[in-house]
């Protein structure tokens, strides 16, 4: 497990050693609460270095001799638009990058413009710092890890705020979100030999310590339920499948219908008999990014004691190749009773989700259901790596997801569904087939397939193939696995479905 630094909130007090981080606005103006001689030093250095306080620009200074700390790092906040949540996250990430190797860093959150940073925004800075400091070093040798840790962020970072008692509860929430993202990143970054379906559910079971109810269905239970679509994917692997059900009951009414999240958990995807090309197949350890996000989300709900009832369901399989593997042309009957022609064994994620979605709706009767999956390469062709594909049967849910994406920076873009696409998955020998007619609209026909397993309930499908792994790094994420979806869906629930 990755270890994030400890963040503590204190009153506005200058550090006795280490480094001081200061925020600067228009013209490099700094807070009047800073000593005059320090503000003068920053002003003179800014003029010489032509530092004007531009957003996220930095100025690194040796501290004057008459103060006990060694460095002053100035970070610009001048922006043409008001700061939103992601702006504060980016600021925290920039600070984390600048204080690597520093002893006892202190972040001064008073400003010249706007006065003290609000408690919620201070907490967002802390979250950005935590997300940026995430590293996956589990398999580094002790010597190599020690060498790299010499340039790590301090184990404790102090944030000096005007009202620390007000900021601490907001910080606790942000720490829970960061822990959920870190868990999702850990799961995706793990190699497939260390994280198959059985090992995945062991990690999920650890959430019970936080109050999450966990239930695991084995192959036996899934067979009795008729989950033949999911089971067909796993039959070529010696590693048995699992279905994990996570429940968080935080609402006042324990019987209130839950919000529900379903994740694709293909722990490694060879493509099966329709085998993938060798190039970059190693990345298919991340084909469980949807399941990782759902797991991280449930950890976040528990960590911040969310006032909502929530269910997270993940279908966990390995899509491998042996003599027992599913063949192109095989026909399976899903839990819903729908028969499916499996024309391409590499279109396996939708088969896993078909049974998981149906089970979720049948058992829990949710208020809405959102599924997440690294489902198609076609969505990367359409949207690249900066937006996830959003498909939905409900305009309100879709709009709320879009808004949550804008606020958090985990952006989504709505894609179409329609009867004209539905015709592309009509089967010749069964009710439907698991691929469309050729390459055109591949992400759409995949979503249209999933829609066949959605009842009369608000539903959204997030195709996160381009955002869950290998996405471009930014100020608060330097990891191959981004943990995409945890912050997005936490914000969706917090803003729209949680008790106030």
UniProtKB/TrEMBL annotation:
CDD domains (UniProt xref): Peptidase_M17
Name of the protein in its database record? Probable cytosol aminopeptidase
Q: Which organism is it from?
A: Consotaella salsifontis
Supply the EC number(s).
3.4.11.1, 3.4.11.10
The entry assigns this protein to a family as follows: Belongs to the peptidase M17 family.
Binding-site list for Mn(2+) 2: 264, 269, 287, 348
**TM region positions:** none
A Gene Ontology cellular component where this protein is annotated is:
cytoplasm
Q: Which SUPFAM superfamilies does the UniProt record give?
A: Macro domain-like, Zn-dependent exopeptidases
Q: Which GO terms describe its molecular function?
A: manganese ion binding; metalloaminopeptidase activity
Reactions the enzyme catalyzes: Release of an N-terminal amino acid, Xaa-|-Yaa-, in which Xaa is preferably Leu, but may be other amino acids including Pro although not Arg or Lys, and Yaa may be Pro. Amino acid amides and methyl esters are also readily hydrolyzed, but rates on arylamides are exceedingly low; Release of an N-terminal amino acid, preferentially leucine, but not glutamic or aspartic acids
């Amino acid at each position: 497990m990755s270890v994030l630094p400890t963040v503590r909130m204190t009153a506005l007090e200058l550090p006795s050693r280490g480094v001081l981080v200061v925020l600067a606005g228009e013209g490099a103006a700094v807070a009047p609460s800073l000593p005059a001689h320090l503000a003068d030093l920053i002003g003179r250095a800014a003029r010489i270095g032509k530092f004007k306080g531009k957003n996220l620009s930095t100025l690194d200074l040796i501290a004057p001799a008459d103060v006990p700390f060694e460095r002053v790092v100035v970070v610009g906040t001048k922006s043409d638009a008001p700061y939103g949540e992601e702006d504060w996250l980016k600021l925290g990430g920039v600070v984390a990058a600048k204080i690597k190797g520093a002893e006892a860093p202190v972040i001064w959150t008073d400003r010249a413009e706007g006065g003290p940073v609000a408690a919620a925004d201070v907490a967002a800075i802390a979250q950005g710092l935590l997300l940026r400091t995430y590293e996956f070093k589990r398999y580094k040798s002790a010597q190599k890890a020690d060498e790299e840790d010499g340039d790590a962020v301090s184990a404790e970072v102090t944030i000096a705020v005007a009202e620390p008692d007000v900021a601490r509860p907001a910080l606790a929430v942000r720490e829970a979100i960061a822990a959920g993202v870190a868990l999702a990143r850990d799961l995706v970054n793990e190699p497939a030999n260390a994280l198959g379906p059985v090992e995945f559910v062991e990690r999920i079971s650890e959430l019970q310590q936080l109050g999450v109810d966990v239930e695991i269905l084995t192959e036996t239970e899934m067979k009795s339920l008729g989950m033949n679509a999911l089971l067909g994917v796993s039959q070529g692997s010696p590693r048995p499948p699992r279905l994990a059900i996570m429940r968080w009951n935080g609402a006042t009414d324990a019987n209130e219908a839950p919000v529900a999240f379903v994740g694709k958990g293909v722990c490694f995807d060879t493509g099966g008999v329709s085998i993938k090309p060798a190039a970059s197949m190693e990345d298919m350890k991340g084909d469980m990014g949807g399941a990782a996000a759902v797991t991280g989300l449930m950890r976040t709900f528990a960590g911040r004691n969310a006032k909502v009832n929530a269910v997270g369901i993940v279908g966990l399989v390995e899509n491998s190749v042996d003599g027992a593997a599913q063949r192109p042309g095989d026909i399976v009957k899903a839990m819903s009773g729908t028969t499916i022609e499996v024309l391409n064994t590499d279109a396996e994620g939708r088969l896993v989700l078909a049974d998981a979605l149906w089970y979720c709706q049948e058992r829990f009767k949710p208020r809405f259901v959102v599924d997440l999956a690294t489902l198609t390469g076609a969505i990367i062709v359409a949207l690249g790596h900066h937006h996830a594909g959003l498909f939905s049967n409900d305009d309100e849910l879709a709009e709320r997801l879009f808004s949550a994406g804008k606020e958090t920076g985990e952006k989504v873009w709505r894609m179409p569904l329609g009867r004209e696409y539905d015709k592309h998955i009509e089967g010749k020998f069964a009710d439907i087939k698991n691929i469309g007619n050729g390459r055109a609209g591949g992400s759409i026909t995949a979503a249209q397939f999933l829609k066949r397993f959605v009842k009369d309930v608000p539903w959204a499908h997030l195709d996160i193939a381009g955002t869950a792994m290998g996405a471009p790094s930014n100020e608060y994420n330097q990891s191959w696995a981004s943990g995409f979806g945890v912050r997005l869906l936490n914000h969706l629930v917090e803003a729209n479905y949680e008790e106030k």
